[in-house]
Each structure stands twice: as C-alpha cells, then as structure tokens.
Amino acid sequence: QVQLVESGGGLVQAGGSLRLSCAASGRTFSTARMGWFRQAPGKERVFVARISWSSGNTYYADSVKGRFTISRDNAKNTVYLQMNSLKPEDTAIYYCAAGGLTGYNYWGQGTQVTVSS
Asked: What SS3 class is residue 18?
C-alpha cells in the first residue's frame, strides 16, 4: 500500500501562487509516477500534471502548461505542484495520485484550492 497526504491548499487572489505538496509513504518503490488531478464543483476529476520518479520526465495538461510546475524530491518521497498566475477557473480540489504506466492506484484525500477574482 501507498499512503499519500496532500498539503498547501488555500485561498489566493487571481494572479497569485500556491505550492502543493504530496508526501508519499509505504511501498513507494512500487510506483513509477506521480500525478496531480483536480475536480471543480460539479465537474469530473481531470488530469493536471505528472512526473516520473526515476527520470523526472513531466507532462502537463494544456490548461496549466507554462503556469504550473511539477517536481519531486526522491529523498523525501514528496512531489510538489508549484502553481503560478492562478485563475478563478483553477479553483478545485487537488488530488495527488501514485501509480504506473497502466494507471493510478493510490489517491490522496485532496486539498482545496480557491482562487478569488
């Protein structure tokens, strides 16, 4: 099993920044990649960004490309999501996930991000 705990959410004005953290514990060696997803009120959960534990390769949704940066600290088993130039439409619950090439098997409890206009 892998446990994921997100932190760093909050309320910020449009144009501001937040950094989310996701601390992983347990059988983290069984996971190849980490991802961030978000779910806005009344909408489905959607992909935001992912990173490979080993190579550090990253991939982003078009909606956040150039504004968000995903990174990892392998020594701390922690993944970060730096969010800059935030917009009201970025308001959502952000979830951290861990998995492999076939999908994400483990999910955190989520952290709320609210961007005011």
From this structure: strand
Q: HSE (CB half, 13 Å, CA atoms) of 19?
A: 9
- 31 or 29, which is more confident: 31
Closest CA relative to residue 84, chosen from 108, 60, 107: 60
Q: What is the DSSP letter of 93?
A: E
**88: three-class secondary structure by DSSP:** helix
* DSSP secondary structure, 12-62, as one string: EETT--EEEEEEEEESGGG--EEEEEEE-TTS-EEEEEEEETTT--EEE-T
Dump pLDDT digits (tens) for 33-55: 999 999 999 999 999 999 999 99
The answer to whether the beta carbons of residues 17 and 84 sit under 8 Å apart is yes
Residue of 28 and 55 predicted with greater confidence: 55
> Residue 45 corresponds to which tokens in the numbers above?
């959960």
- The confidence score (pLDDT) of residue 96 equals 97
Encoding tokens for residue 80? 């970060």
